[in-house]
Design a protein that fits this description.
alpha+beta; 5-stranded mixed sheet; 4-stranded antiparallel sheet; about 25% helix; globular; about 30% strand; 8 helices; about 425 residues
């Protein structure tokens, strides 16, 4: 296969990835099969929502969605295209038309204010959680999530973007400025620590993750002026904001992870090479990293697996789609593709079944009860910088399945998810 052909394939995959929407950190979709809980492309919509206190008796609901994911129609050839959308929060349902005018932003936004009594009536999982549903009525497609109702007595220090909208998750591009409000005269500090580059060890070996020992360094210390607003620049890795206490440590108000510009997409060539490490030998990986033309070296690797361009293209699409899904679903203090769950997801694919408890996840590959079934358990570990940090219970019994899956990748025998 000519070298430029596979390079074109890589570029096309990167472009396709750029059109995928963003996934909220707390979102779930009630219509998705329990066998595919991490399949991003199974969703047609990917809305994000946040609830913030407004006074003692009201809550502001902030909603964002990707206009590219909605169906826009028009009544006649001279009228503008529009989508018929709605948001349902239990007892409160609001519908509206979103008109697709020339020059409209890709991101749609909607804000509404609700009385706390309405939210308490709609809460079905106790007083602090509410289920909400965003619907594209033209397509008859919906997206469902759980959102936390803020405590009326709590002080709101939630981080905001420069346009005044709240952040929907903990991942913010490095170099961006984040804002929050607090009492005039209050004192705050911003601390950060960069996370060292390290991949998890294979499932059959021991693992020595030390991210829980990272010690963020104070980057700035200030007193809030009369406006009540503060801003700080996101650094790579962990960013924590808090007020200093009497023992010289931070009482943390919120934590943000600084990510690369392309997050969560897989576009950067160096990232594509780094993520291939799970199925490359040490010498192959070193050659790609040190190559004068790293793109050609990556092309050559995938051609060696697929043997011809069509098969190589399918392998590339499957592999890097899994990398991107791992970034979307498992990122915390570590990028999702560097986590235990991300590693297993990339190499083994979507589990046939997942069972979840409060502190663990069981991933089953194969038919339950059969001799060839693979059952992996991920234990949730207390972590100072990651509220959802899971570690694989490693075992030598995973050696044969791991080697078999890597061999299947190397021989081009992987089926798309």
């Amino acid at each position: 296969m000519p070298r430029p052909a596979l390079i074109t394939i890589l570029i096309l995959i990167a472009i396709a990835a750029s059109h995928m929407g963003c996934q909220s950190a707390f979102s779930v979709n009630s219509s998705k099969s329990i066998q595919r809980p991490y399949d991003y492309e199974a969703h047609l919509l990917h809305a994000e929502c946040s609830l913030l206190s407004f006074g003692q008796d009201s809550v502001d609901v902030f909603l964002e969605w990707n206009r590219d994911e909605c169906l826009y129609l028009r009544d006649d050839p001279n009228s503008p295209f529009y989508a018929q959308l709605s948001i349902d929060l239990g007892t409160n349902r609001e519908s509206w038309r979103d008109t697709l005018l020339s020059g409209a932003n890709q991101t749609g936004q909607r804000q509404l204010r609700m009385d706390r009594s309405e939210l308490s009536q709609a809460a079905k999982e106790g007083p602090t959680w509410i289920s909400a549903e965003f619907t594209d009525q033209n397509r008859n497609s919906s997206f469902t999530w759980r959102a936390r109702v803020p405590d009326r007595k709590s002080v709101n220090h939630d981080p905001h973007r420069s346009d005044g909208w709240p952040l929907f998750h903990q991942h913010v591009m490095t170099g961006d400025t984040v804002y929050f409000s607090s009492a005039a005269g209050s004192r705050w500090q911003h601390a950060s620590a960069e996370v060292p580059h390290r991949l998890p060890s294979p499932p059959f070996t021991t693992n020595k993750d030390k991210t829980d020992t990272l010690q963020p360094i104070i980057r700035s210390d200030w007193q809030v002026d009369e406006s009540g607003w503060s801003g700080y620049i996101i650094q790579p890795g962990i960013n924590v904001i808090g007020s200093p206490n009497t023992v010289g440590k931070l009482d943390i108000a919120h934590m943000i992870h600084g990510v690369d510009f392309d997050y969560p997409h897989v576009r950067d060539l160096r990232l594509m090479i780094a993520a291939s490490r799970y199925i490359t030998s040490r010498s192959e990986f070193q050659r790609m990293e040190e190559a004068s033309d790293p793109k050609a070296a990556l092309d050559a690797f995938w051609l060696s697996c697929g043997n011809e361009k069509v098969a190589a293209a399918e392998l590339i699409k499957t592999y890097y789609s899994r990398v991107e899904e791992a970034i979307r679903y498992f990122s915390g203090v570590l990028p999702g593709w560097k986590t235990d769950r991300g590693m297993v997801h990339i190499v083994f694919g979507v589990p046939d079944k997942i069972r979840k408890t409060k502190d663990s996840e069981w991933w089953l590959y194969g038919e339950e009860g059969s001799a060839n079934a693979i059952n992996m358990r991920f234990l949730r570990r207390d972590h100072p910088w990651d509220p959802a940090f899971y570690e694989l219970g490693r075992s030598i019994q995973y050696r044969a399945p791991w080697d078999r899956m890597v061999t299947n990748w190397r021989n081009g025998r992987i089926q798309p998810d």
